[in-house]
Amino acid sequence: MAEAKDDDPVASATPPLSWGRARGELGGGTQVSQRLLAYSDALLSIIATVMILPVAHTKIQPDQKFNESVQQLLATKIAVYLMTFLIVTVAWAAHVRLFQVIELIDDVLALLNLACMMIITFLPYTFSLMASFPDVPFGIFLFSSCAVVIGAIQAIIVLYGFDHPYLLNHQIQMSENQAFYKYHILKIILRGPTLSFLAAVFSFFFIPLSYVFLGLVIFFPHISHLTKWFRSKVLGQEEEAPLESFTFYLTEPLSKERVEAFSDGVYAIVATLLILDICEDNVPDVKEVREKYNGHLINALRENGRNFLAYFGSFITIGLLWFVHHSLFLHVTKANRLMGVLNTLSLAFIGGLPLAYQLTSEFAEKSHNEIEAIQVSCVTIFFASIFQFGIWTAALFHERETLHPFARYGGKEHAFMFAKLALYPCVSLAAFVLTCVLSELSTSIFHLIQIIVPFAFLVLRIFVRVGLMAFRLVISLSRPRRSVLEEEEACLSPAEMS
Amino acid sequence: MAEAKDDDPVASATPPLSWGRARGELGGGTQVSQRLLAYSDALLSIIATVMILPVAHTKIQPDQKFNESVQQLLATKIAVYLMTFLIVTVAWAAHVRLFQVIELIDDVLALLNLACMMIITFLPYTFSLMASFPDVPFGIFLFSSCAVVIGAIQAIIVLYGFDHPYLLNHQIQMSENQAFYKYHILKIILRGPTLSFLAAVFSFFFIPLSYVFLGLVIFFPHISHLTKWFRSKVLGQEEEAPLESFTFYLTEPLSKERVEAFSDGVYAIVATLLILDICEDNVPDVKEVREKYNGHLINALRENGRNFLAYFGSFITIGLLWFVHHSLFLHVTKANRLMGVLNTLSLAFIGGLPLAYQLTSEFAEKSHNEIEAIQVSCVTIFFASIFQFGIWTAALFHERETLHPFARYGGKEHAFMFAKLALYPCVSLAAFVLTCVLSELSTSIFHLIQIIVPFAFLVLRIFVRVGLMAFRLVISLSRPRRSVLEEEEACLSPAEMS
C-alpha cells in the first residue's frame, strides 16, 4: 500500500533519499527483497501443487473397480504428492527464515536465490525417482545431493550477507555480536544439509539408515519443538532466555505476508489446473462433430455437460475456500507455529482438489464408482476446511497475540467468522452422509450443491446479522435505554457511520 | 513493507484506529483490496500462460519433417495461444482499472470478483472452441456471452461501489460529481460487452460481422488512442482538458505493482511447467529398468540426459529474463501505456518458452529438425528480450516521469542496465547466426550456452565497473583534483559508504 501512493508522478520525479527503502531501490545495486520473495513464493507454491497432476492424470479403466484402482495405482502417487508438498513447504519455511535475516538484496543475492530456486524446483523430480526406486542407491543419492546443494547455496547467501552487513536485518546489523549470530545461523541452516549428506553417503552402504536421516530433516524441527514444549510444560523446566533479543529459531513465527503469498499461489494454481484439463480434453474434434453430430456443436458439447458442471462446482469451491482463508487472515495479526502447520495441511488438501475433480468428472455412469468419487471429494473438502477451522481455533488460544480485536471472543466479527469457517466442514460432512444413506447419488447433484453454497454465504451474513440484532434486543430489554444506544454507537465502525 | 513492520506483537495487540487502512481491516466487513488483487493477478497470469500447454503437448511424429508439422499442426494452436493471451491481458487491464476506482472491498465485492474470475478463466476454453469451429454460430455465441457476463458483473461491481461510496477512490468520494463519474465509468466498462452482445446476436445471421465486433473489443482502446495521438500530434488539435482532475480513461497508466504481480505470475508458471513435463515423462518405468538396464538406474537416466540439460538451460534463461525484468522495474517509477503494451508482448513470448523447451528436448537425433528447434528457441528468446529492451527505450523517452534518477542518461546504473538488457538479444542473435552458419549444431551445445550466460552477468558487472572507472579516470585527468573527489563522494550511495 505504501508503494501505491508513491505513484504520484510529480513526487516520484524527485524522490528524497529517505524514500529509497520504501521505493525498492537503494542505489549501488542494493534493493529491497519484496518482489524477489513474492516471486519465490509463487514458484514454490506452484511447484508444491503441480505434483498432483501425475496423480490426477493416472488412467483408470472404466471397467476396473474404483476401490481397487485407488489402492493399487493411486496410493503410491498420492503419498509422493503429499511428501513432495511437505518437503517443498519445509524448503519454503527455511527460505522465509533466511530472508528474515537478510532484508536487502543485491544482484549477487538475487542470482544466488534463483539458483536455489532452480534446485528446489528440481527436488520433486528426484523425490519421485526415489519413490519409484526405493531400493536403488542412486535415487536416494540424487535427492540427498540436491538437498546438500540447496543448503550450500543458502550458506553462501548467509556468508555473503554477513560480508555486506548493510544487507542484514537492522537488529543484527546494530548488534556487537555479529560473529555469534553468523555461526548460530549457519549452524541451523547446515543442520539439514549435513543430515542429507550422511544420507547420501549411507545410500551406498545401508539404505534404511539413509531414510532415517532424510526423515530427520523434515521432522527434526517439529521433534525438537515438541521436546522443548514437553520439557517446559510437563517437567516444568524453564528455557534459558536467549542472550540477545533477536532469535533465529526454526520455531519462530513465519511472516504473515509470505504465508498469504504462498497460500494464494496454491489456490491460484489449483483453480487454473481445472480449466487446463477442460481445454486439453473437452474441445470436440472437428471431424467427429461433422460425422457423428451432423455438424451440431451443441449436441457434441452436451456430451461434456457434466464436465462443465464439475468445473464450475470445483472452481466455486476453491474460490470460496480462498475467500474464507482471506477473511480469516484479514483478522490474523501474527501466525504462530501451530497455525503455520495447520495452514500447510489445509493447503495440501486444497492441492488434492484437482484429483477430486478428475474423479467426479470421469465416472459418468451411475455406478458404485460414482459414489466413491463423490466421497473422495467430500473427504478432501472436509479436511481442507476443517484445518482452516483449526487455524482459527489455534489462533483463539492466543487471541491477544494472534487476532485482531474484532475477531476475538465477543468481537463484532467473531460470530460471522465462526459461521464462515464452519460452513464447508458442515456441507461436506452432510454430503458425505448423503452418499452413505442414499444408494445412488449423481455427481451432477453434488456439483449443484457446490454451486449453491455461495448463496449460502450471503444468506449466512443476513442470518448472523438478524441473530445478533435479536440478541441485542434481548439484552436491551434488561438494561436502561441510554447505555444501549451508546454501546451500539461504539460498535459501529467508521465506515458504517459515514 | 509497511505491513511487515506491523508484525510487532505488542503494537498489534492494541492497534490504533488510524492503522486500520494499512493493516487491511476497516471493520464492518470493509477491507483493503491488496490480497484480492494479488490473487486475481495470479489467476489471470496463470490462465494466460497455461494455454501454451496444448501447443507444447502436440504430438509430432519423429519421421515428419518439422517445418511441415509446424505449419500444419502448430500454426492454429499458436495463434489460439497468442489471441488467448491478448484477450486475458485485456480483461486483466480492465480489472486493474476497475479496482483503481474501487479501492476498498467488502465480502459482496470479493464474491462478485471471484465470479468474474471464474468466467474469465473459462474464456480460453470458449475461445479455443471458437477457433476450432470458426463457422459454427454456437462457438461465437458462447464466447461473446462470456464477455457479456463479465461486463455485467463488472457493471454490478461499479454500481455496488457507488452505492457504498466509502469503498471508492478517495478523489471520487470527495467529488461533488459522483453521478457524472458513475455514468462515465459505466459507459467505458459497458463498451466491450455491448460490442460482444452485438457479436452474439449477429452470430446467428452473419458470422463475419460478429468477428468484426469481437476484433473491435480488443483493438478499440488502441485505435482510439492512436486516433487521439494522431489528432494531437499531426493535426495539431489540442485535447480538451477533462472537467475534473480524476480521469478513468483506458489510456491511463496501469499501476506498477499490478504489472509486476502479473509478470511474476507468468514467469513463475513458465518455470514450473518445465519441471512438470520432466516429472510426468522422465521418471523411468520400474519394469523397463529391471529388464532393459538390469536394474541400473543411472543408465536409464542417461537416456534422458539431454532433457535435464534442456531443463536447466531453460530454467536459467527464464530465471535471468525475470531477473532483468526485476532490475528494470526497480528503476521504473511509473509504467506508461506503451511500456504496458511492450511488457505484454514480452510476456507472450516468455509464455512460448515451454514450447521451445519441448521442441529442443524432443528432437534427439542430429537432424534438420534439431537446427530448426534451436532456431525457434532463439527467436522466442530474442523477441522476449528485445521487447524488454523496448520497455527500457520507451521509458527513456519520458525518463523524467518514468525512471528513477539512477537509471536515466548519465545515472550511475544507466550503463549497467543497458548492458543487462542488451545481453539476451545479443546472445540469442549470435546463437541464431551460428545455426545458419554451421550445418550441424547440437541442442546440447545450445543448452550449455544457456547455462553459461549467468556467469556472463557477473563478468558484465565487473566489466561495466572497470569501464566506468577508466572513464572517470580519463575525466579526472582533465579536471582539478578536489572536485573529482567531491563528485565521487556524491556518487557513492549510502550503502556503499557504510
Overview in brief:
The structure is a homodimer of 498-residue chains. Chain A is built from 22 helices and two strands. The first copy, chain A, has 498 residues and is an all-alpha fold.
- Give the termini distance of chain A in whole angstroms: 23 Å
The profile of the biggest β sheet of chain A is:
2 strands, antiparallel
Multimerization state: homodimer
Kindly state the mean pLDDT of chain A as a whole number? 76
| Helix/strand order of chain A, N-terminal first | HHEHHHEHHHHHHHHHHHHHHHHH
State Rg of chain A.
26 Å
Largest interface: A-B, 118 and 118 residues
Number of helices of chain A: 22
Count of distinct strands of chain A: 2
Notes on the structure:
Two copies of one chain form a homodimer. Chain A has 498 residues and is mainly alpha-helical. Chain A is built from 22 helices and two strands. Chain A is globular, with a radius of gyration of 26 Å. Chain A folds into two domains: 3-251, no CATH class; 256-479, no CATH class. Chain A is 75% helix and 1% strand. Chain A has helices at residues 9-13, 20-23, 34-50, 52-56, 66-101, 107-132, 137-163, 170-174, 178-202, 207-233, 256-281, 286-292, 297-303, 305-330, 337-350, 353-362, 368-397, 399-402, 414-437, 443-477, 481-491, 494-497; strands spanning 31-32, 104-105. Chain A has a two-stranded antiparallel sheet. In chain A, helix 3 (34-50) packs parallel to helix 6 (107-132) and helix 7 runs antiparallel to helix 9. The model of chain A is unreliable at 1-26, 240-251 and 482-498 (pLDDT under 50).
